[in-house]
From TrEMBL:
Record-level GO BP terms: base-excision repair, AP site formation
Gene: nth
Keyword annotations from UniProtKB, A to Z: 4Fe-4S, DNA damage, DNA repair, DNA-binding, Endonuclease, Glycosidase, Hydrolase, Iron, Iron-sulfur, Lyase, Metal-binding, Nuclease
Lineage: Archaea, Methanobacteriati, Methanobacteriota, Stenosarchaea group, Methanomicrobia
Annotated PANTHER family: A/G-SPECIFIC ADENINE GLYCOSYLASE/ENDONUCLEASE III, ENDONUCLEASE III
Domain (HhH-GPD): residue spans on this chain: 41-189
Swiss-Prot/TrEMBL catalytic activity: 2'-deoxyribonucleotide-(2'-deoxyribose 5'-phosphate)-2'-deoxyribonucleotide-DNA = a 3'-end 2'-deoxyribonucleotide-(2,3-dehydro-2,3-deoxyribose 5'-phosphate)-DNA + a 5'-end 5'-phospho-2'-deoxyribonucleoside-DNA + H(+); Hydrolyzes mismatched double-stranded DNA and polynucleotides, releasing free thymine
Cofactor: [4Fe-4S] cluster
Designated name of the protein: Endonuclease III
SUPFAM superfamilies: DNA-glycosylase
Length: 215
DNA sequence: ATCCCGAGGG
DNA sequence: CCCTCTGGAT
Protein backbone atom coordinates (compact mmCIF):
# COMPACT_ATOMS: atom_id res chain seq x y z
CA UNK A 1 0.00 0.00 0.00
CA UNK A 2 1.33 3.40 -0.98
CA UNK A 3 1.57 6.05 1.70
CA UNK A 4 -0.56 8.23 -0.53
CA UNK A 5 -3.32 5.73 -0.92
CA UNK A 6 -6.41 7.92 -1.45
CA UNK A 7 -8.57 5.40 0.43
CA UNK A 8 -6.41 5.69 3.54
CA UNK A 9 -6.58 9.47 3.59
CA UNK A 10 -10.28 9.76 2.96
CA UNK A 11 -11.22 6.95 5.34
CA UNK A 12 -9.28 8.42 8.22
CA UNK A 13 -10.65 11.92 7.68
CA UNK A 14 -14.19 10.56 7.38
CA UNK A 15 -13.83 8.90 10.75
CA UNK A 16 -13.03 12.27 12.28
CA UNK A 17 -15.38 14.70 10.56
CA UNK A 18 -19.07 14.69 9.75
CA UNK A 19 -19.18 16.50 6.44
CA UNK A 20 -22.94 16.52 6.05
CA UNK A 21 -23.34 18.46 9.25
CA UNK A 22 -20.80 21.18 8.51
CA UNK A 23 -22.14 21.79 5.04
CA UNK A 24 -25.72 22.33 6.10
CA UNK A 25 -25.51 26.06 6.54
CA UNK A 26 -24.04 26.49 3.13
CA UNK A 27 -26.46 24.21 1.34
CA UNK A 28 -29.69 25.85 2.36
CA UNK A 29 -29.80 28.21 -0.61
CA UNK A 30 -32.79 27.56 -2.79
CA UNK A 31 -31.41 27.74 -6.31
CA UNK A 32 -28.20 28.20 -8.33
CA UNK A 33 -28.69 31.97 -8.31
CA UNK A 34 -28.67 32.13 -4.53
CA UNK A 35 -25.79 29.68 -4.27
CA UNK A 36 -23.69 31.65 -6.75
CA UNK A 37 -24.20 35.01 -5.09
CA UNK A 38 -23.74 33.61 -1.58
CA UNK A 39 -20.54 31.89 -2.63
CA UNK A 40 -19.09 35.07 -4.15
CA UNK A 41 -19.94 36.93 -0.95
CA UNK A 42 -18.40 34.24 1.24
CA UNK A 43 -14.80 35.11 0.34
CA UNK A 44 -12.79 35.97 3.43
CA UNK A 45 -15.75 35.93 5.77
CA UNK A 46 -17.89 33.51 7.74
CA UNK A 47 -20.98 31.51 6.78
CA UNK A 48 -22.94 33.21 9.52
CA UNK A 49 -22.23 36.63 8.10
CA UNK A 50 -23.21 35.52 4.60
CA UNK A 51 -26.44 33.99 5.87
CA UNK A 52 -27.45 37.22 7.54
CA UNK A 53 -26.85 39.55 4.61
CA UNK A 54 -28.22 37.20 1.94
CA UNK A 55 -31.53 37.07 3.76
CA UNK A 56 -32.11 40.74 3.06
CA UNK A 57 -30.36 40.63 -0.31
CA UNK A 58 -32.52 37.84 -1.73
CA UNK A 59 -35.69 39.32 -0.28
CA UNK A 60 -35.04 42.48 -2.28
CA UNK A 61 -33.43 40.87 -5.32
CA UNK A 62 -35.01 37.43 -5.74
CA UNK A 63 -33.44 36.63 -9.12
CA UNK A 64 -30.61 37.52 -11.54
CA UNK A 65 -32.71 40.05 -13.39
CA UNK A 66 -33.57 42.14 -10.34
CA UNK A 67 -29.98 42.06 -9.10
CA UNK A 68 -28.72 42.96 -12.57
CA UNK A 69 -30.72 46.17 -12.34
CA UNK A 70 -29.86 46.98 -8.74
CA UNK A 71 -28.27 50.25 -7.67
CA UNK A 72 -24.67 49.73 -6.58
CA UNK A 73 -25.04 51.79 -3.45
CA UNK A 74 -28.05 49.81 -2.20
CA UNK A 75 -26.26 46.51 -2.66
CA UNK A 76 -23.14 47.81 -0.93
CA UNK A 77 -25.16 48.80 2.12
CA UNK A 78 -26.73 45.36 2.41
CA UNK A 79 -23.57 43.30 1.99
CA UNK A 80 -21.29 45.65 3.95
CA UNK A 81 -20.61 43.27 6.89
CA UNK A 82 -19.06 40.63 4.60
CA UNK A 83 -16.05 42.83 3.83
CA UNK A 84 -14.69 43.76 0.37
CA UNK A 85 -18.16 45.16 -0.09
CA UNK A 86 -17.32 47.52 -2.94
CA UNK A 87 -15.72 44.87 -5.12
CA UNK A 88 -18.28 42.25 -4.19
CA UNK A 89 -21.23 44.56 -4.90
CA UNK A 90 -19.87 45.47 -8.31
CA UNK A 91 -19.10 41.85 -9.06
CA UNK A 92 -22.46 40.36 -8.17
CA UNK A 93 -24.31 43.02 -10.17
CA UNK A 94 -21.99 42.60 -13.17
CA UNK A 95 -22.20 38.82 -12.90
CA UNK A 96 -26.00 39.00 -12.83
CA UNK A 97 -25.99 41.24 -15.90
CA UNK A 98 -23.79 38.77 -17.76
CA UNK A 99 -25.97 35.82 -16.78
CA UNK A 100 -29.09 37.76 -17.80
CA UNK A 101 -27.76 38.78 -21.20
CA UNK A 102 -25.42 35.99 -22.27
CA UNK A 103 -26.86 32.97 -20.49
CA UNK A 104 -30.57 33.73 -20.75
CA UNK A 105 -30.85 34.11 -17.01
CA UNK A 106 -29.61 30.60 -16.25
CA UNK A 107 -26.58 30.24 -13.99
CA UNK A 108 -23.99 28.35 -16.04
CA UNK A 109 -23.19 24.83 -14.88
CA UNK A 110 -19.74 24.44 -16.43
CA UNK A 111 -16.36 25.64 -15.26
CA UNK A 112 -15.47 27.54 -18.47
CA UNK A 113 -18.64 29.63 -18.31
CA UNK A 114 -18.70 30.22 -14.56
CA UNK A 115 -15.15 31.52 -14.51
CA UNK A 116 -16.14 34.23 -16.99
CA UNK A 117 -18.39 35.81 -14.39
CA UNK A 118 -16.82 38.71 -12.48
CA UNK A 119 -15.85 37.68 -8.97
CA UNK A 120 -15.87 33.99 -9.82
CA UNK A 121 -12.53 32.20 -9.84
CA UNK A 122 -11.89 28.46 -9.88
CA UNK A 123 -12.45 28.19 -6.16
CA UNK A 124 -15.89 29.78 -6.25
CA UNK A 125 -16.82 27.96 -9.46
CA UNK A 126 -15.96 24.59 -7.93
CA UNK A 127 -18.14 25.27 -4.93
CA UNK A 128 -21.08 26.40 -7.08
CA UNK A 129 -20.74 23.34 -9.29
CA UNK A 130 -20.62 21.07 -6.28
CA UNK A 131 -23.37 22.68 -4.22
CA UNK A 132 -25.80 23.91 -6.87
CA UNK A 133 -25.39 21.27 -9.56
CA UNK A 134 -23.78 18.30 -7.79
CA UNK A 135 -21.13 18.38 -10.48
CA UNK A 136 -17.75 18.60 -8.86
CA UNK A 137 -15.31 19.20 -11.67
CA UNK A 138 -12.20 19.52 -9.57
CA UNK A 139 -10.72 20.15 -6.18
CA UNK A 140 -11.03 23.75 -5.02
CA UNK A 141 -7.63 24.77 -3.74
CA UNK A 142 -7.92 27.23 -0.89
CA UNK A 143 -5.33 27.97 1.76
CA UNK A 144 -6.31 24.89 3.78
CA UNK A 145 -6.18 22.47 0.89
CA UNK A 146 -2.91 23.99 -0.19
CA UNK A 147 -1.30 23.80 3.24
CA UNK A 148 -2.39 20.23 3.93
CA UNK A 149 -1.40 18.98 0.49
CA UNK A 150 2.07 20.41 0.85
CA UNK A 151 2.51 19.18 4.41
CA UNK A 152 1.41 15.66 3.59
CA UNK A 153 3.73 15.74 0.61
CA UNK A 154 0.98 15.18 -1.97
CA UNK A 155 2.52 17.98 -4.01
CA UNK A 156 5.65 20.11 -4.06
CA UNK A 157 4.03 22.94 -5.95
CA UNK A 158 2.79 26.08 -4.28
CA UNK A 159 0.69 27.38 -7.14
CA UNK A 160 -3.01 26.53 -6.77
CA UNK A 161 -3.50 25.47 -10.39
CA UNK A 162 -0.69 22.95 -10.22
CA UNK A 163 -1.76 21.70 -6.82
CA UNK A 164 -5.19 21.07 -8.26
CA UNK A 165 -3.65 19.11 -11.11
CA UNK A 166 -1.67 16.97 -8.69
CA UNK A 167 -4.63 16.35 -6.42
CA UNK A 168 -7.07 15.48 -9.17
CA UNK A 169 -4.45 13.02 -10.35
CA UNK A 170 -4.04 11.40 -6.93
CA UNK A 171 -7.71 11.22 -5.96
CA UNK A 172 -10.39 9.57 -8.13
CA UNK A 173 -13.12 11.90 -9.31
CA UNK A 174 -15.83 10.60 -7.02
CA UNK A 175 -13.74 11.71 -4.02
CA UNK A 176 -13.09 15.28 -5.16
CA UNK A 177 -16.01 16.99 -3.49
CA UNK A 178 -15.54 15.10 -0.26
CA UNK A 179 -11.77 15.58 -0.14
CA UNK A 180 -12.39 19.26 -0.53
CA UNK A 181 -14.66 19.51 2.47
CA UNK A 182 -12.63 17.16 4.64
CA UNK A 183 -9.36 19.00 3.99
CA UNK A 184 -10.98 22.31 4.83
CA UNK A 185 -12.32 21.01 8.14
CA UNK A 186 -9.03 19.35 8.98
CA UNK A 187 -7.17 22.54 8.09
CA UNK A 188 -9.30 24.63 10.40
CA UNK A 189 -9.31 22.27 13.36
CA UNK A 190 -6.09 20.26 13.31
CA UNK A 191 -3.70 21.10 10.51
CA UNK A 192 -3.75 24.82 11.24
CA UNK A 193 -1.35 27.30 9.72
CA UNK A 194 0.35 28.00 13.03
CA UNK A 195 1.10 25.36 15.65
CA UNK A 196 -0.65 22.45 13.95
CA UNK A 197 -1.95 19.83 16.38
CA UNK A 198 0.13 16.96 15.06
CA UNK A 199 -0.23 14.99 18.28
CA UNK A 200 -3.94 14.49 17.69
CA UNK A 201 -3.74 14.16 13.90
CA UNK A 202 -4.57 10.73 12.54
CA UNK A 203 -2.59 11.38 9.35
CA UNK A 204 0.73 12.08 11.06
CA UNK A 205 2.15 8.65 10.26
CA UNK A 206 1.90 9.38 6.54
CA UNK A 207 2.75 13.10 6.76
CA UNK A 208 6.00 14.49 5.44
CA UNK A 209 5.77 17.61 7.58
CA UNK A 210 5.42 15.48 10.70
CA UNK A 211 8.30 13.25 9.68
CA UNK A 212 10.57 16.20 9.09
CA UNK A 213 9.55 18.47 11.96
CA UNK A 214 7.92 16.58 14.79
CA UNK A 215 9.50 13.17 14.99
C1' DA B 1 -2.16 40.81 16.17
C1' DT B 2 -3.49 37.28 12.87
C1' DC B 3 -6.27 34.59 9.94
C1' DC B 4 -10.20 33.61 6.75
C1' DC B 5 -14.37 28.01 2.46
C1' DG B 6 -10.55 34.56 -2.78
C1' DA B 7 -10.35 37.34 -7.04
C1' DG B 8 -8.12 40.43 -9.95
C1' DG B 9 -4.39 42.95 -11.37
C1' DG B 10 0.65 44.24 -11.90
C1' DC C 1 5.67 36.03 -7.86
C1' DC C 2 3.65 40.22 -5.44
C1' DC C 3 -0.09 43.43 -3.91
C1' DT C 4 -4.81 45.29 -2.77
C1' DC C 5 -9.50 45.15 -1.33
C1' DT C 6 -12.42 44.82 3.92
C1' DG C 7 -14.79 43.20 8.14
C1' DG C 8 -15.24 39.94 11.71
C1' DA C 9 -13.74 36.21 14.68
C1' DT C 10 -10.46 34.56 17.88
Amino acid sequence: MSVFDPETIITRLRSRYDLSQSRDEFLHFKNPYETLIATILSAQTTDKCVNIVTKELFARYPDVFSLANAVLDDVEKIIHPTGFFHTKARNIIAASKLVATEFHGEIPDHMEDLVRLPGVGRKTANIVLDHAFSKTEGIAVDTHVRRISMRLGLTDNSEPNRIETDLTCIFPQYMWGEINGLFILHGRRVCTARRPSCSICNLSDICRYYRENCE
